[in-house]
Amino acid sequence: MSDWQAGAPASANWDHGQAMESTADTNNDAAFAAAFGGQDSDMGNSGAMDNACRNCGQEGHFARECPEPRKMGACFNCGEEGHSKAECTAPRKFKGECRNCGEEGHMISDCPTYVEKCKNCQQEGHNAIDCKNPMMMDRHGVADMSEAEAWDLLKQASNERDIGDFKEAVQILTKVAPDYTYPRLEKEFRDRGFNIYLIALEKDTGETWTNVNIQGETGKKYVVSYFKSDKPQRPTLANKWPASPEENMDRLANAGIPLDRGVDLCRNCEKVGHKTKDCPEEKMVREQLIVTCYLCGEQGHRVRDCTQERKKPGRACRICEAEDHIAKDCPNREKQTCRNCGAEDHMARECPDREKRTCRKCGEEDHIARECPNAPKQTCNICDAEDHFAKDCPKKGEPGLRPRRDWSQVVCSLCEQKGHGRARCPQAEGTAAANGETATNGNAGAGAGWEIAETATAGSAQGGWEQTGESHAAPAPTGGFAW
Q: Within 10 A of 223 (CB to CB), how many other CB atoms are there?
């Protein structure tokens, strides 16, 4: 709790603690609290005046709906009621202190001891618009260092490629050694191998600003900019960039940084040299922004101050934008024909004679195969994971043997039974026998090329790996894998 609240208990109002301590001042405290809308005169019903009108004090409406004339209060200039300070015709009374002599009752422009100085050179007797002297450079906020320390800061900022720190180091250097010029600095930067470049570009600074070099000379043509490369990095700078380092040096001799000239710009005639209140030309009438209420369409007030009743937003028809019906009941709705029964009063998804759909996986009629909750999980053929397929497997293309397939979970695409694939399906064997096909050892179609059939000669060579007279190859297992 802050110091000004230390003596009072925690309360929603400033004077509530005093009202509890002293019953003699209850009426005064209640009136003070009621004026702020925090408590009523009984001091028991907190917030009773929250719904009262701020204009007339009566309940039942807000200030924007008050039928009574708006009370302006006393004018802050003359103290009279009936008008605001902006509408007051009495001369303005200055109640502050003069910034020149410190006395009350007048401004610095009316001070008898004030002598106006030039904002460009800070000398007396002329204005900034007529000044031909160099600008007084204000460097009181720049750190005081030696020239060697400034060069160390420049080198560090260049190595870090920090343009902000590099600019500050340039200001420190020019404060301790004001004889430096921008061409001399750029030449020194190149000799030291710095990564920051001074490039002179032509820019429009306006009538109230001017380009000033290190010595304070104004009216320079080009603006000194800092870049990390001697080539333009943006297309917008290509036309403004100097064609060669020699041209850049010539530009830097006539370049500076943009600073305020200290001259006034009239907003009436758009000319420099005087303020708007001192403009000799006739005052131009500018169009004022007209405020329009979006609720009633009248001008002069906003929606928050509108006295008309606000309409509750309702659902509008998307076809005709009427509010008494929605799109499905719109009379202008285009006729739609049901694809199932051909009727025009409903669509296929709402058809009462809709054909039943049967799932080809589980046989139920309330869903189709792609929506079947009993569908078998599809696993990756490489790593047996269930969260992806073989085409998305992270182990795809890695060397090494693949894991054995769990044939108990494999579903045959012919008989839709688990435990074997299409190559080992009995229906496939029966079909092959009916077509007159033969197989070694009676295993018709076993493996479908994945297995090496066992031959009558147990000592035959396997896959041509061994061609000698003595065979050490093991017999091929029946029903195994041959990768």
A: 19
- Segment 377-429, tens digit of pLDDT: 677 877 777 778 788 888 887 776 666 677 777 788 888 888 888 888 888 76
- pLDDT at 29 (0 to 100): 47
Neighbours of 424 (CB within 10 A): 20
At position 470, the amino acid (one-letter code) is E
Residue 54: what pLDDT? Answer: 84
Maximum CA extent, the chain: 130
Angle at 330 between CA 327 and CA 331, to 5 degrees: 160
Name the pTM for this structure: 0.45
Please say if the pLDDT value at position 12 is more than 70.
no
Separation CA 274–CA 284 (nearest Å): 16
CA distances from residue 473 to 22, 455, 460, 463, 481 in whole angstroms, order as listed: 113, 13, 8, 10, 16
Most confident of 262-266, 311-315, 319-323, 449-453: 262-266
Of the candidates 173, 170, 180, 257, the one whose C-alpha atom is nearest the C-alpha of residue 222 is 257
Give 210's strand partners.
259
Residues 6+ apart with CB under 8 A from 450: 423, 481, 482
- Are residues 53 and 41 in contact, defined by beta-carbon separation less than 8 angstroms? no
Token code pair at residue 456: 């009558």
Q: Which residue type occupies 152?
A: D
Per-residue b or e along 142-155, where b marks 16 or more CB atoms closer than 10 Å to that residue's CB: eeebeeeebbebbb
| Sign of the torsion angle spanned by Cα atoms 264, 266, 270, 273 | negative
> Dihedral sign, CA of 351, 352, 356, 362?
positive
pLDDT at 188: 95
Count of CB atoms situated within 10 Å of the CB of 480 = 11
What pLDDT band is residue 216 in, cutting at 50, 70 and 90? very high
| Euclidean distance between CA atoms 465 and 456, whole angstroms | 19
Q: Which amino acid is at 337?
A: T
Q: How far is CA 140 from CA 171, 172, 175, in A?
A: 11, 11, 9
Nearest in space to 248 (alpha carbons), one of 275, 227, 279, 271 = 227
